[in-house]
Amino acid sequence: MKTSVSWQQDVHFSAETGSGFNVEIDGNQEAGPRPMELILAGLGGCTSYDVVNILKKSRQDVVSCIAHVDADRADTVPSVFTEIRVHFVVSGRKIKESVVARAVKLSAEEYCSASLMLERGGVNIVHSYEVVEVE
User: Fold this and answer.
1) Would you say domain 1-33 falls under CATH 2.20.25?
2) Which pLDDT score is estimated for 135?
3) In the predicted model, is pLDDT for residue 14 greater than 90?
4) How far, CA to CA in Å, does 3 sit from each of 8, 17, 28, 89, 94?
5) Would you tell me how many other CB atoms lie within 10 Å of the CB of residue 10?
6) Contacts of 23 (CB under 8 A, 6+ apart)
7) 10's torsion region: left (phi>0), alpha (psi -120 to 50) or beta?
8) Cα separation of 110 and 119, whole Å?
9) What percent of the chain has pLDDT over 70?
10) 20-39 in b/e burial notation, b at 16+ Cβ within 10 A?
11) How far apart are CA 131 and CA 98, in angstroms?
């Protein structure tokens, strides 16, 4: 896996991923997200991927899965994440809460590389979920 990041100006950078996508990164949030926001987005994407796949394999009729990710950072430099909260809102038809709980737990404890890497680095990650019935 590769990515190259090139400085554009001030605190604006362009990243090109090994899969050919471009992402603008900007510390001032004028041309793109800040670098630490991308870490949260990566975590949210990684764990959501797991949760949705587990739910689909469990034959749950998922219509929507949103991971709301928010974090606290240290007050001193380096301003690392100290706690990250991931809250899933899973919507669907006759979704079993026990299956959602299992999917979230499996992602957090076994499958999500981003989550496991951050936790091993000392970040406390708290997972929660809610199930919304839709017609």
Assistant:
1) yes
2) 87
3) yes
4) 16, 4, 22, 31, 41
5) 11
6) 14, 15, 17, 32, 38
7) left
8) 12
9) 100
10) eeeeebbeeeebbbeeeeeb
11) 10
pLDDT at 26: 97
Q: Which fold has domain 35-133?
A: GMP Synthetase; Chain A, domain 3 (3.30.300)
Residue range 16-68, pLDDT digits in tens: 999 999 999 999 999 999 999 999 999 999 999 999 999 999 999 999 999 99
> Could you identify the residue written with the tokens 């809250």?
87
pLDDT at 129 over 90: yes
Cα(69)–Cα(61) distance, integer angstroms: 24
Token pair in block for residue 130:
């809610």
Q: Phi/psi of residue 110, each to 5°?
A: -130, -35
Q: Indicate the domain borders of the chain.
A: 1-33, 35-133
Query: Token pair of 134, please?
Result: 């839709």
- pLDDT, the chain, mean: 97
Does the global pTM surpass 0.90? yes
Structure tokens at 18: 């090994």
